[in-house]
Design goal:
globular, 11 helices, alpha+beta
């Protein structure tokens, strides 16, 4: 089956949705592909639970939002639908936006329908055809059918550089990546104080690590901030599994996680009054994979760009989240830069240096290991997705230059 598209977006997480909506604003014919059954990526299927990087780090009670009008509009739409999707003072001047995953999914679906975007869920990207350093065709499997999509540009928001992998071009990768996390939801909690509940859970798990033969990293268990609501709470369990680029085809390494979650809940029920009547509502279908290999762009964002809050005349997004690194031994390293400031993400970190019509966003931007540990968060991915969608619409280098100037101006005026 043949499908015609101006823009193909691979990956329907927050950055892929933003890229699709941005291209649709330019009246382009957009096809959005994803392997999952519904849009949302990690924000829905792993229930990350909080949108980070949407505000400047600040010790003011009135934090300043980051991003352009589009980004703020999408978050305003979520806030109108979900009463808890408001700025939440977390720690060290950081602000996050909690959300209910079902509502966020509904917002995504409504926006995609309103924009007239062709959404192909349960779709696998099989191969990519290139000619003269340009992608011409994308081959996919969908609902037991094979399809060929003719396209002018591709935006890769897959989170693991799948387009670059299939075309055989160079990627940025490491031997191992940050630890993953599994979110599960518990109901019938007798507590109104999220901080006290979080501390009680940590103490109980740490106390029983040796007796239950749990990995030490389980001591990092925590309540997802802002999730305690109507006697329900989401709990994040950082996992001991070593994450490599084979993890997406080797998910059986997580097979022990449901058993351990059941054990943890049994311990909490027996030792904490707040958990006496608790029961497991759900384990979210996917573990949260923080980073994998990335596409290689004309510029590679690096650690110094972040810690020095470097500014670029070709900036199309502003990063505000610290460098957050979760190690497999349970250690968390946070590297902060000065408050009320951010760093530029230049357009060239979203533009392939090897294929003329390949762009990328979200966790797939061109960045070093430490740089992506900051830029991977959802608030930043929303910005880079929007920018990549606009860049993919440019038909010439001059148009691309004009788009970058427009994005930079819009960012500064917001």
């Amino acid at each position: 089956m043949k499908i015609e598209a101006d823009i193909v977006v691979v990956g329907a997480g927050i950055s892929g949705i933003a890229a699709s909506l941005a291209a649709a604003q330019e009246k382009k014919n957009v096809v959005l592909l994803d392997e999952n059954s519904s849009p949302g990526g990690n924000s829905v299927h792993a229930n990350v639970g909080t949108i980070c990087g949407a505000y400047y780090r600040s010790f003011s009670p009135n934090p300043k939002p980051v991003g352009n009008v589009f980004c703020r509009s999408l978050l305003d739409t979520l806030a109108h639908a979900d009463e808890k999707a408001r700025p939440y003072a977390y720690a060290e001047g950081l602000y996050i936006i909690p959300y209910e995953w079902t509502i966020l999914q509904q917002v995504y679906e409504k926006l995609l329908i309103q924009a007239g975007i062709k959404v192909m869920m349960n779709t696998t990207l099989d191969s990519v055809r290139t000619t003269s350093r340009k992608i011409n065709e994308v081959y996919v499997s969908h609902a037991d059918e094979k399809s060929c999509i003719n396209t002018n540009s591709v935006v890769d928001c897959s989170g693991h550089a799948i387009v670059s992998q299939l075309t055989g071009i160079e990627t940025i990768k490491e031997d191992t990546y940050q630890a993953a996390a599994q979110i599960f939801r518990v109901r019938n909690i007798d507590s109104k104080d999220e901080f006290s509940l979080d501390m009680a859970i940590k103490r109980a798990v740490l106390k029983n690590l040796n007796a239950m033969n749990w990995p030490m990293i389980y001591g990092r268990v925590s309540v997802v901030p802002g999730s305690l609501d109507k006697s329900k709470v989401d709990i994040k369990l950082t996992l001991p599994n070593v994450i490599t680029d084979t993890i997406l085809t080797n998910r059986e390494v997580f097979d022990d996680v449901p058993k351990h979650i059941s054990e943890i809940l049994s311990v909490l029920k027996s030792q904490l009054d707040s958990f006496r009547e608790a029961s497991l509502e759900m384990i979210f279908p996917q573990p949260g994979i923080r980073t994998l290999q990335r596409s290689r762009g004309k510029y590679i964002l690096n650690e110094q760009d972040i810690v020095q809050c470097k500014k670029s005349p070709r900036s199309i997004a502003t990063g505000t989240w610290p460098i957050e690194e979760w190690e497999n031994n349970g250690k968390l390293r946070m590297t902060y830069f000065e408050p009320d400031n951010g760093y530029s993400i230049p357009a060239d970190s979203l533009i392939s240096d090897q294929l003329q019509n390949l762009f990328f966003a979200g966790k797939n931007i061109s960045a070093t290991s430490r740089a992506i540990a900051s830029a991977r968060v959802m608030g930043t991915g929303l910005q880079t997705g929007y920018a990549a969608g606009k860049l993919a619409c440019a038909k010439s280098m001059q148009e691309q230059s004009d788009v970058i100037k427009s994005l930079h101006r819009e960012l500064n005026e917001s």
